[in-house]
Amino acid sequence: MDSLNDALLRLLRSAARAPRRETKSDLSLAVEARVLAGWRSSESADPLPAGVLSLLRRGLVFACAVMLAAVALSVVQVHRGTSSLWTAPLELVDASYLR
After folding, report:
1. pTM of whole model > 0.85?
2. At what angle do helices 88-98 and 50-81 cross, to 10 degrees?
3. Which helix (H) or strand (E) holds 18?
4. 3 occurs within a structural domain
5. What is the tens place of the pLDDT at every residue in 28-85?
6. Does 57 reside within a domain?
7. What string of DSSP letters covers 73-93?
8. What does the DSSP 8-state code read for residue 20?
9. What is the spatial distance between Cα 95 and Cα 70, in angstroms, rounded to a whole number?
């Protein structure tokens, strides 16, 4: 492991000593500004239309309501058959395995 660390350290030191190349842009400032503006405006565009997102939200709310109603009904059904509040969760689990 130490040999890997030493090799990495030597590599990083030699990279730090290497001369840096100057990068020169071939595009003018106006072209760069237009390209960047187009890129930024394309990022802010919403990939889903507003109607689809609204439909997905409504579907999620409906699915949550159905799930809560099913859990509440199953807890009530199990609680009717038990005499103790502490045994109700165990009977609920047992009932789910039997069905």
Report:
1. no
2. 110
3. none
4. no
5. 888 888 988 888 877 656 666 767 888 999 999 999 999 999 888 877 776 676 666 6
6. yes
7. HHHHHHHHH-S-TTTHHHHHH
8. P
9. 14
